[in-house]
Design brief:
This protein is mainly alpha-helical. It is built from 6 helices and 2 strands; from the N terminus they run H-H-H-E-H-E-H-H.
């Protein structure tokens, strides 16, 4: 995640931990700064050997493919134009702990 989604990712991480599933949350507030880092640093944050990745982004999925890879998934906006309180919109568009957990489990099952 890049911002407000990080707390949602941490909630999902804690839920998965209850089931003995160990996942790591990475906050990436600026893709450009991350991409400018050394290959060794990027490998330490997003190891190539870890292919089960989920990006949680309250915007379009554009650009996240290079981080989640072919085996990963995204929980992102699939449409626009809704207006309501943020909590209702997050639920409507799938930004819930339950959906992030479900998405992560589906990636782990691949």
């Amino acid at each position: 995640g890049t911002g407000s989604e990080v707390s949602l990712a941490i909630d999902a991480q804690q839920e998965l931990a209850k089931e003995g599933i160990d996942v790591r949350v990475v906050s990436m507030p600026c893709e450009e700064l991350f991409d400018a880092q050394s290959d060794a640093y990027k490998e330490s944050i997003l190891p190539n050997a870890v292919r089960a990745r989920v990006a949680v982004e309250a915007a379009a999925d554009f650009g996240w493919g290079k981080y989640v890879g072919l085996d990963g998934a995204t929980v992102t906006m699939k449409g626009f134009g809704a207006s309501a309180p943020a909590a209702k919109l997050f639920e409507k568009f799938g930004f819930t702990k339950e959906n992030v957990v479900k998405t992560m489990k589906s990636v782990l099952a691949k």
